[in-house]
Design a protein that fits this description.
alpha+beta
Length: 169
């Protein structure tokens, strides 16, 4: 018997495809409360959506962007001078270590937008490798940008770091 809540696949699909999710708790007067874990997942995903509002409809989006670990799936959403990668973990165990391999680009900065941290890539020839954790049945987001972090981005990083101190599980 699966212990996977019916919300989990919906959230993963929404985040992977950047289509959003309508959290409808009051349906014509009938209370349909979303459990705390899933309400928190919505809060985190929505924060990422809202901080990068124009990137999710990228004409150059790439679903099923290659990842390095089994059970981790990603989509790439390129914009002007930046790309956001949304990741989902379909596995029942958390994944740590390197998740993405990208081509080296001088001057690029990388942020774990889900956990609110600056990423230091490991370079190997013409590629870089980005390592960060993704919870079991959880989410991840990476920003690759050529721009220096401004006050808005720094504030968002701090907010996400505070939100993700407590794991969803």
């Amino acid at each position: 018997r699966s212990t996977l809540c019916p919300y989990t696949p919906l959230f993963r699909s929404a985040f992977f495809n950047a289509v959003g999710y309508n959290a409808w708790e009051n349906i014509w007067g009938i209370w349909n409360q979303i459990p705390d874990r899933y309400a928190e997942a919505i809060r985190r995903i929505a924060a990422i959506y809202r901080h990068f509002p124009g990137i999710w409809n990228s004409n150059d989006c790439q679903p099923f962007f290659p990842t390095l670990q089994k059970g981790i799936f990603a989509s790439a959403f390129p914009g002007k001078g930046e790309t956001v990668y949304s990741l989902v973990n379909r596995d029942s165990v958390s994944k740590t270590g390197e998740q993405l391999k990208l081509p080296f680009q001088a001057g690029m900065k990388y942020y774990d937008m889900y956990n609110g941290k600056l990423l230091v890539p490991r370079r190997a020839g013409t590629d870089i490798f980005l390592g960060f954790p993704v919870e079991a049945h959880g989410f991840g987001a990476v920003l690759a940008t050529s721009e220096a972090a401004d006050s808005s981005l720094n504030g968002f990083i701090r907010r996400m770091h505070a939100l993700t101190k407590k794991p969803l599980k």
